[in-house]
Design a protein that fits this description.
Arc Repressor Mutant, subunit A
Length: 132
């Protein structure tokens, strides 16, 4: 799951009873829950807006307001976070990790990984093995 804490969520109003969460914040938390369940299979923002019965522009507005990120960026970051975990803790090769994350083109996966980390997934995995 994305490592978000309530303290990192902007514009979250704390009310006197401490239990009230604004309805639009419920939408954001529902999106994050959906993302956690479907990120391997559903990479398009449209899926999440449809599931939440919201216009994508509205959902993007809410995620930008509370998390300072677009829906697409949150999906991308969640996939990348899982890729890091699989590279560190699994014995899967790069192609298997790509398929595990729902990316049918391992070359595309490697390109996206390099964009985030500055090195290829293979180099990342090799550097990890050299450290241990």
């Amino acid at each position: 799951m994305l490592n978000l804490k309530l303290s990192e969520i902007k514009n979250l109003e704390v009310f006197s009873d401490g239990n009230y969460i604004p309805p639009d914040m419920h939408v954001v938390t529902n999106f994050l829950e959906l993302l956690e369940v479907h990120f391997r299979a559903e990479h398009g923002p449209e899926f999440y807006s449809k599931e939440l019965k919201l216009n994508l522009e509205v959902l993007n507005g809410l995620t930008k307001c509370y998390l300072s990120k677009t829906v697409h960026r949150l999906i991308d970051e969640r996939i990348h976070q899982e890729a890091l975990k699989l590279l560190k803790y699994s014995t899967l090769n790069i192609k298997q990790i790509s398929y595990e994350l729902g990316v049918s083109d391992p070359t595309w996966f490697s390109r996206c990984f390099r964009k985030h980390e500055g090195i290829s997934p293979r180099a990342f995995k090799k550097a990890l093995s050299e450290k241990s």
